[in-house]
Amino acid sequence: MKIATFNVNSINARLPNLLNWLQRCQPDVVLLQEIKTEFNSFPFFDLQLAGYEAKILGQKSYNGVAVLSRGKINLVREGLPDFEDDNARYLEAEIVLNQDKIRVASVYLPNGNPPYNNPDDETKFQYKLQWMDAFYRHAKSLCENGEKVVFGGDFNVILTDKDVYNPKLFENNALFRIEVRQKLKAVEYLGYYDAFRVLHPHENGYTYWDYSGNAVALDNGMRIDYFWLSPKATDALRACYVDKSPRFEDKPSDHTPLILELT
Known about the structure:
Blueprint: E1 2-7, H1 15-25, E2 29-33, H2 44-49, E3 53-57, E4 65-69, E5 72-78, E6 90-97, E7 100-108, H3 123-145, E8 149-154, H4 178-189, E9 193-194, H5 195-199, E10 208-209, H6 215-218, E11 221-222, E12 225-229, H7 231-235, E13 237-242, E14 258-262
Parallel strand pairs: 1-2, 7-8
Antiparallel strand pairs: 1-14, 2-4, 3-4, 5-6, 6-7, 8-12, 9-12, 10-11, 13-14
């Protein structure tokens, strides 16, 4: 089973790129973030023609997550449990493909940085910490069930110094503050595995490059998109790698897909 996670930064704006990539890569399951559209504007028909069923949790102009699959999707959860203001950031489903069953979730964790015009405002950062606490509680409950679980998405966390081109530059950034790194490590301590790092302990694995400053050419990127696997899913881990090619397309997303292969 090939599973991809991809922050598309507006699915309708990037639809030709997404469809071309789906045809080229042929993933079985795709977890999308920042679809930035509501249900009635989502391109279900185009994706169906490409061979994918879609389930979404949308929002006008902001956020939004989706799960695409070549097999049957059984929707399990829209939004995190016990968290009232999820803002269309979490969608969980059960996928049945070739008689194999797996639980997947598309995750779009809050950025947490303050508004540019009010750098001392901690409201968004506190929301990020609360969101991460709710995610931790839910991840813990799923891990205790012993299922094959895959969390994939844009986690907006730079976990270590080697996950960003210039750690010093991001010292006070909400993606790199010690509080968020500790909370993501806490998920790892529950028993989840960072799929890319399991197989590639020394590569940078960047999945995001800013649109400005010639960032792609200079490889001034960061690793903020992850697959976190339960022990049972990790037992089936065969490959995990970054596909940088969509970042070179015309009008690309600022992210690029991370791909997971399970036996």
